[in-house]
Amino acid sequence: MQTLFAPVITTLLFMTVFKLAFGDRGELRGDFAGLSYNDFLAPGLVVMSVLQNAFQNSSSSLTISKVQGSQVDFLMPPLSPLELTFGFIFGAVTRGVMVGLIAAVAIHLSGLADLSIVHLWPVIWFSLMAAIFLAAIGTMGGIWADKFDHLAAVTNFVIVPLTFLSGTFYDINVLSEPFRSIAHFDPIFYLIDGFRYGFLGAANSNIGVGMAVTGGVAFAASTGVWWMLKSGYKLKA
What we know:
This protein is mainly alpha-helical.
């Protein structure tokens, strides 16, 4: 109930509030000309739920183990740093993708938005990269944090701003310069934009560039997790 359905309810509430506020009046322009705002918003909310839950799963698991002193349970077994990396990251990926899938189905079946898939491969690629990237960031945050206040700082001052300012709720072309250009340096923008392309067939950025950027940051973050586990940073001291 807490790991799957609670975040789905939050996503549905976001979708409901925006639909009640804008109704059918939110027609878009530019790259998304002629599309309904509700259909534009829904994929962004789905990716946001994937990102947040992948991060929470890995970060909270590690922080709880450190607070309780139970990290020995995964350090003592004969598991290599690479196996631990895969375990923590893909455990969080599983939760993130499941939450996103349930949220997408619920939004579509409830009639809040049309989430018919136009291109399947971007939906698969960008949802997986979103989950892997934030799962890795969450794992690194969980290893670094000494208490839940440290983890809350990462969430409130890094993850939430990057998510909310990456085009989740709006077309970034409405931003004035230099903020429009700055948005293109946010990897979460490419995750949301590419995922949205799978449903709408339109995007703010080049999808090939988005695939390269998201694949690169997911690999870099996963490599960072492997290094931290291999060195024993804040785990074996």
